[in-house]
Amino acid sequence: MNPCPCFFRLGKGRRGSIRFLSPPVFLSSDLQLLQWGSEGSLNHRDRNSTPQPLLNPRGGLLPCCPGAGRGRGLGAGREAVTSSRRRKNMAGASGLGTGPGAAGGDGDDSLYPIAVLIDELRNEDVQPPLENLATVEETVVRDKAVESLRQISQEHTPVALEAYFVPLVKRLASGDWFTSRTSACGLFSVCYPRASNAVKAEIRQQFRSLCSDDTPMVRRAAASKLGEFAKVLELDSVKSEIVPLFTNLASDEQDSVRLLAVEACVSIAQLLSQDDLETLVMPTLRQAAEDKSWRVRYMVADKFSELQKAMGPKITLNDLIPAFQNLLKDCEAEVRAAAAHKVKELGENLPIEDRETIIMNQILPYIKELVSDTNQHVKSALASVIMGLSTILGKENTIEHLLPLFLAQLKDECPEVRLNIISNLDCVNEVIGIRQLSQSLLPAIVELAEDAKWRVRLAIIEYMPLLAGQLGVEFFDEKLNSLCMAWLVDHVYAIREAATNNLMKLVQKFGTEWAQNTIVPKVLVMANDPNYLHRMTTLFCINALSEACGQEITTKQMLPIVLKMAGDQVANVRFNVAKSLQKIGPILDTNALQGEVKPVLQKLGQDEDMDVKYFAQEAISVVAQRLRKLDFPVKDSGEPSVPRADKNHFPRPRVPGEDTGKGPVYPLHGDTRDTLAQLEIAELVHFSQSRD
Amino acid sequence: MNTHAWPTVFGGGESERTRGGCPSPCGLDVTRMLGEDCTASRQWCHADIISTVEFNYSGDLLATGDKGGRVVIFQREQENKSRPHSRGEYNVYSTFQSHEPEFDYLKSLEIEEKINKIRWLPQQNAAHFLLSTNDKTIKLWKISERDKRAEGYNLKDEDGRLRDPFRITALRVPILKPMDLMVEASPRRIFANAHTYHINSISVNSDHETYLSADDLRINLWHLEITDRSFNIVDIKPANMEELTEVITAAEFHPHQCNVFVYSSSKGTIRLCDMRSSALCDRHSKFFEEPEDPSSRSFFSEIISSISDVKFSHSGRYMMTRDYLSVKVWDLNMESRPVETHQVHEYLRSKLCSLYENDCIFDKFECCWNGSDSAIMTGSYNNFFRMFDRDTRRDVTLEASRESSKPRASLKPRKVCTGGKRKKDEISVDSLDFNKKILHTAWHPADNVIAVAATNNLYIFQDKIN
User: Fold this and answer.
1) Which parts of the chain span the membrane according to its record (chain B) (predicted)?
2) pLDDT digits (tens, 9 = 90+) for A328-363
3) 3-state SS assignment for residue B357
4) Residue B178 domain-assigned?
5) Could you list the residue range(s) of the whole structural domain that residue B231 is in?
6) pTM for the complete prediction?
């Protein structure tokens, strides 16, 4: 359950003063805690603790607390997890400084993860564990415990359910602390369907009392589970019991409870007939749409499509459309933005026969005003969906009514608005063709391409392949090609990097011939640029383009340039030559590798600069392998024929970023840190085998 | 932590404590409850100065923070037959280092470890939670008891050394063994990097899931479970800092209405904001200001009208503000003027010039309500603190000092002589000690128990028990 659905979603970077994006100054244990939960954290944790298995990463923070000796209070049971992958995370997370090589090693069949789990669980004196975990104060743990309890409930026979599970739910529901009562809210719906009538009545009674609990936390939990519970109830009970509960929660004194009732409204509405909806639900929903708190109105706007579907076309026309109009002109920008986001879905969900008229007459006037809204978030929310209306309204309406809006938004002062329009061009293209827009499009693109903020430039680069596809090769060559080349010499690395990737995508779109004529010559010219950064860009471009361009162009046009640059006076260029050769090696044929690449690499391998030497050796090993493969084709061509460094023989900590799933493709590439071993093995294995 | 680092030893020998008392104007018989051994000769250090005092919702726990970044929590003893007078005594429950001094390398600024505010969270399970903040970083602490210890871990030996994960061939379930009660404090969340200026207030919302933090120019809203994001709801920073005319001095949520909060400014005004009406609360919905009396206008008017603390009454109907010379009670329904104004130390009005010179005029006195909102308390100089009974309109000056408050004796009301003849037991304005100031006080939410922080000493007084 997201405890506060709307408020903490929007507003990112609304003002300069929101500085939550900046990283913490000090290494806080709390932040580590946060990372443990996520899948991607495995590598991170490993890296932290690899060098010294006994290092307690939290050591620095705790010694002053009385509990420091224990050290575990912090991480205790933060995550009660079930999947084995997660358990490994927890292994790293237990804060004991456990050798994570173990966790990262061949953990799946060892007892290690279970050992960690058991040791974690002892923290709460566990009788029975899940029930206890459902009462701890960490929400993540509680939610996981409830999730597991829900799964377990399905395994119970009806008899066992009543004998063991229902009493457990009752204990939780009548617990002293709100934590157990909130957990109980999520369990009613799983035991209700299979319980006997007497027990059912009790369950309903308990849910009722939780809905009027003293603490807002429990009421929030109850409100968020109300819809789910309604679904398993008999229709009569829904009408007689759930609806009053819903009405009460929707008029709760706490904003955070009322807004969750809106969510429940969707589920309840799906269960009731049209007449019942009108009498039982609509009064409350109308009230919610006009609630004093913008957060509740925001929820109505955010859930509008679901509400629309649940309520059916008649109520939509009579009630929801007027409500939506109000939301579109709400005094709070967050609400307007949420409503603007729903404009397209609203149109799509309307009955096909009259949706054109409804949108034209009842929605479009409001949209027109939003185009010139004072708040940029509203405008950009609208810009992200407005193009979708064109398919609904058809060609003529689009040209007459929507096109002026698109054009206005393309000229908007806020780059995000323009970007959103450009990113959705494909919808319009289908309806009216892009030519209608291209006159205004071009200035907008050029302006974004030269925006002072590099993130804006980055965003427009990402849309270039899409635009190229929409606009066609001629228009592109004429207008946009020069922009794409200009980005290659941008002073921000991220832009240059994105520009090279962009070139690759363009080549994939327009073909090698186009590449050979327009792109490659321009890229290769930069190899003579006085600025070494630009010379390196040439190499990066070659890395990206070689595959798309194929062997011929790579060998004939690119390779000579790369080899020539091996004599560059800047070491960075030289070792990037080595990297490039490694990268394009697989594309080249044996002759080129043997005759041209290998000598150059060997020369670089003797370079005075340590890094150049290192990367040259690395490239040598890859190239050598490639050569060997070409010389001795193996039947099982997927596997390299070198004796692989079996992971069982080398139980080593994994390197960050290494794909643990596939195993190392090039065994020697595995531990890039150990240069010495690298060189030794490279000599032993590769050149002895390949030199014949 | 070494006990000697905290020079005041609380809960000393039983013999020191006596009971007795005399009626005070608030109907509160104040009894000194806890002795402190900080002798006058002993040089206490800067880090020991208490910087905040706060009771939890039940009043059973009392937290203090000091300039050394430490938090000390006291627990009230339960009724005990063998020690009939022990009920109500507060003894040290837990001590921990909440904040450490830091250095902001980007701005070349030292960040003090001083605890600016402590706020308890409503109790949600057997453990207690509190928020503590220094100038920049807010931390959520969990204070929990442990009387069992697990033995027989899989991952480590009995002596705590880690076992080689590959040697684990059999699993065992750790067994819980009883042990001596231990109270441990652990940091649960750290809310950092959201404030450019110094945090002066934190306040927990009645929805129990959000809280606000206010610095000189901005107020941020946090979710208690989300540390990497906060929402700025008030921003009074002008585009040009030279146009800055006022700063935020304190902020607090309404005790019951989740959408209402107030913040006070250095200009002596209070703004009440409704979070329902808009996501950004730059526009207030109520503005409390008392028109200035032109006759008393002086060079210091603006400085002494600055509000140093704002507190809602428990009922939520009133709020109280403290400025330099007075404490005012406002009805939330009347913005034009306060319903009550109590003079705290009006005799200082003639001394403002010297108070300005020794910077005392910028002292930030706090104020607090009693449990039933019928009395208020705030501090003054010379270790004096003042109590005002709102019903009877009586007030009293009391002194928190080792000399005047003998154990088990009642506190005697003190009087400051304002010109003319000095009567017996009166103290003249000129002999007030301005280095002894009581800035932080707290009142038990239900009982007549008060905690008064006098520089490095904490005094806890209690209603007379017959």
Assistant:
1) none
2) 999 999 999 999 999 999 999 999 888 889 999 999
3) helix
4) yes
5) 28-36+48-463
6) 0.73
